[in-house]
Amino acid sequence: MNRRSRWPRWGHAVVLALVLGWAVHGTGLSVSALADGAGGALLLLEGFLSPDLSGAFLSDVAGALVETVQISLTGLFFAALLGLPLAVLIAGNVEAAPAVRAAARTTAATLRGVPDLLWALLFVAMLGPGAAAGSMALAVHGAGLLAKLCAEQLEAVDPAPVEALRLTGSGRMATTALAVAPQAAPGLASLLLYQWECNLRTSTVLGFVGAGGIGQELAVSLKLFRYDELSTLVIAVLAVILLVDLASRTLRRRLGAAT
């Protein structure tokens, strides 16, 4: 009996090992491939150890960072405008009409189901390269994420005040505004701040496809093998992300939300 029970476990391990081996082999990753890339790694490391700190380039970096922050905030603003109403319609304790709730849920799933990088490519094709395309990509994808996460926050509130208002004859909108939303406010604020952090990181990547921000500068420096400039850009991005993360944590703590 014990011997029989061990075979499925060994079988699962063998299947898992085969699948992982197949995946690694398909990527072409190997010790020899890593060894062949050692020369490039040394050049990259050499450039990272001597960042470009010239005044003209630092001015360009500062401008690109400002644009990246603007993209992240604009994306958050429009994501909240679209995502929060969807969250209200999705939340079970709001009790929206079944057809409306299903439509809102489907819309949110569609928006977040398309990767933000693909949204960026689509908006670059529509609006042309630049910060507007990046902002819209973050807004559309972020709206789908916020709709799902904020709906969960709304559903997690204490049901007692909600039921008390309903017993007094309050309608759905009044109950949501007076009992659901106030309880969920700290959690919603925390989610919005966290989404801003995510937007800042994502906007850096979206720049590689022409969606504005410091990502475009990173792409140019990487293509031209200007590793000293790349080092400066990476350091600048890390510094801004750490500052935003610290500010976000501080604000969430003051709001009484989880950090």
Question: Could you describe the 3D structure shown?
Answer:
With 259 residues, this protein is an all-alpha fold. Helix content is 83%, strand content 0%. The chain has eleven helices and no strands. Helix 4 packs across helix 11 (227-254) and helix 9 (172-206) packs parallel to helix 10 (214-223).
Concise structural overview:
It is built from 11 helices and no strands.
The gyration radius over C-alpha positions equals 24 Å
Query: Beta-sheet strand percentage?
Result: under 5%
Helix content: over 70%
Number of strands: 0
Number of helices: 11
List the helices and strands in order. HHHHHHHHHHH
Identify the overall geometry: globular
The chain-level mean pLDDT equals: 85
Biggest sheet features: none
Q: What is the rounded distance between the termini?
A: 49 Å
Structural class: mainly alpha
Stretches with pLDDT under 50, minimum 5 residues: none
Keywords:
11 helices; mainly alpha; 0% strand
Topology, element by element:
Layout: H1 2-27, H2 31-36, H3 38-48, H4 55-90, H5 98-113, H6 116-127, H7 131-155, H8 159-167, H9 172-206, H10 214-223, H11 227-254
Helix pairs in contact: 3-11, 4-5, 4-7, 4-9, 4-10, 4-11, 5-7, 6-7, 7-9, 8-9, 9-10, 9-11, 10-11
